[in-house]
Amino acid sequence: MIKKLNINLVNEMRYTYILTFSLLIILWSCKAPMVDESLPVDESIRLNQLGFYPDQDKRAVILNHGEAEDFAVWDLDNKDIVYQGELSKEVTGTLSGHTSRVADFSAFSQVGNYVLVLNGVGKSHPFEIHPQIHKKLGKASIKAFYYQRSGMELDKTHAGIWARQLGHPDDQVMVHPSASSDSRKVGELLSSPKGWYDAGDYNKYIVNSGITVGTLLSLFEDHPGYFQKLDLNIPESGDQVPDLLDEIRWNLDWMITMQDPGDGGVYHKLTTARFEGMVEPHLAVSQRYVVAKSTTATLDFAAVMAQASRIYKAYLPEESVMYLKAAEKAWSWAKQNPDVLYKQNEMNMVFDPDVVTGTYGDHNPADERIWAASELFITTHNLIYWDELIDADQSFKLPSWNQVAWLGYYSLLRHQDNITLLPQEWMAMLKINLLAAARNQLEGIDATGFHTPMETEVGNFIWGSNAVAANQGMLLLYAYRQTNEPVFLEGALDNLDYLLGRNATGYSYVTGFGSKTPLHPHHRLAESRPDLPPLPGFLVGGPNPGQQDGCTYISSFADESYTDENCSYASNEIAINWNAPFAYLTNSLEAIK
Ligand code: G3I
Ligand code: 9MR
């Protein structure tokens, strides 16, 4: 009896199993189209190769889309199709005349790892949806400055495989004939250590240091809480000073030595006479010089020191006092020498040795004066600086090394509640101009091939165009802070998506971040160690139709004028003034989100 019951039970269970199994098969086959795991990565699908914030827009752009009408998002962890959508209608506008279509999956917000699939065409590079999607990248973009440190041995603890010997102690720097003064004679040796290498070369230039440090200090001033906690694993980590400020200090320590203690003027650069070869720092031992003072370098120095003085006050009170004195002394020199421009060719006709390294020559110091006056005013509240601003040009100009007025204006807007001494209408005009420029940046995005502010103007594609994209992103973030309008935040993200892969070449333009990234940047620190991957966290210059390096490019169109070759200093070099706005964009987004 018991046996019979058991047999019945076993039979019943068998039927249930078969039923459930068949049901599962039916359900499975009724599901959305299956994804073919063997689909190849298709380079014509362009998207941010890191990924997206859950609650922000998510777009891929598809070139050469053939007949495809639909796309799907495939979950890489549980192999499920999690989202399906239709491609937009064709957009006519890439700069090289390609048509594109947009796959918009903004409505999908589930955290995870994915690829975007175009049936019958291929899949995208993998990406992630995560609330801190750019956090690691943001840290790396600042850590890059540590890798650029001159005059320091980098140890394994902080530099890992990129540890290196000390180079460029800069304790025997010669006064070039163009730089002599009463207190410093030609041929004299002075000490001017530390600082960051400017770029792919090993020289140190005050003008470019100026905008770089100003941008990074503003990043701190805009998000002090975020940076209190951010650990960069640099030698100073764990001290009382936030790591970002410790890193910036490495360059401030150098900048301060570039001021002539006699008259307060600041040398334009510290450089070899010609560019060094592609060798490691300790093997690049040609004589280095301090070269000619200039008004632009001196005013940039004054701006940075004034800003540093108020920021470091809480951490390093003695340095804070020293920075302000240096700034005021530099300001006085510039008042007496309002038009000492750096003209390398003319200089070389008069003095030897000829100096043929980077020029950062700029024929108009008006914007540098605005920046310095703004920072000095915010720090001191002294109305003599307001006198310089009262009639100044308030129109918006996107910051670059030779256009720094808006570094000062951004600062004034940041401190608007503490500087009530300035007339309200004047401050209001700054805000109006900022917002008008930001709205202008967003105009026409829908008609661009990759849906980015960057592509709305072909003129954005200059030497260092990627920094134009980053600086536009900064402008949009400032507009967002002023208004809280989400459209500005989305615009900033569009340009970040551009930099990380949604663009005409399909590169994520940051070393070590993304699936297709620069492997051969024009960067002496990287090129001299071909056994290692390029140092990570560096934004390369990007598409530049000027193609001044004479390397071979596959296209002459503005947005395609990029080549991942060592020789390409006009499109594939790295530089501190490009990493700084990029660090601003990525870290500020992380701080806001
Ligand atoms: O001023 C003109 C402008 O009127 C014109 O509309 C525009 C069209 O392209 O060109 C402008 O001049 C450009 C200038 O930068 C200012 O933007 C030049 O064509 C361009 O050749 C020049 O490029 C500079 C480059 O050095 C060569 O001097 C880059 O901005 C600058 O970032 C770069 O900096 C070098 C340093 O000298 C040395 N260290 C590496 C660093 C990065 O490559
Ligand atoms: O390496 C130099 C790079 O940092 C500069 O941006 C660039 C333009 O000034 O010049 C590079 O040096 C090149 C020099 O100008 C011409 N000869 C080849 C050098 C690089 O290999």
CATH class of the domain at 135-360: Mainly Alpha
- Helices, by number, come to 17
What's the overall average pLDDT, rounded?
94
Helix content bin: 25-40%
Distinct bound molecules: ligand G3I, ligand 9MR
Rg, Cα atoms, Å: 27 Å
Taken as a percent bin, the fraction of beta residues is: 5-15%
Q: Which structural class matches the secondary elements?
A: alpha+beta
Q: Ends: how far apart?
A: 69 Å
Which oligomerization state do the chains in this entry correspond to? single chain
List keywords for this structure.
binds ligand 9MR, six-stranded mixed β-sheet, 14 strands, disordered N terminus, 17 helices, alpha+beta, Immunoglobulin-like, five-stranded mixed β-sheet, binds ligand G3I, globular
Note down, in words, how this protein is organized.
This protein has helices at residues 2-30, 135-147, 156-159, 206-222, 224-229, 243-257, 295-312, 317-336, 344-350, 366-380, 383-389, 405-414, 424-442, 465-483, 486-499, 524-527, 576-592; strands spanning 45-46, 51-52, 59-63, 70-75, 81-86, 100-104, 112-118, 122-123, 127-129, 173-175, 189-190, 204-205, 267-271, 289-293. With 593 residues, the protein is of the alpha+beta class. Among the domains are: 45-129, Sandwich (Immunoglobulin-like); 135-360, Glycosyltransferase. Strands 2, 4, 5, 7, 8 and 9 form a six-stranded mixed β-sheet that branches. It has a five-stranded mixed β-sheet with strand order 11-10-14-13-12. Helix 2 packs antiparallel against helix 17, helix 7 runs parallel beside helix 10 and helix 10 runs parallel beside helix 12. It is globular. Residues 1-11 and 15-32 have low confidence and may be disordered. The protein binds ligand G3I and ligand 9MR. The site of ligand 9MR has 7 residues, from loops.
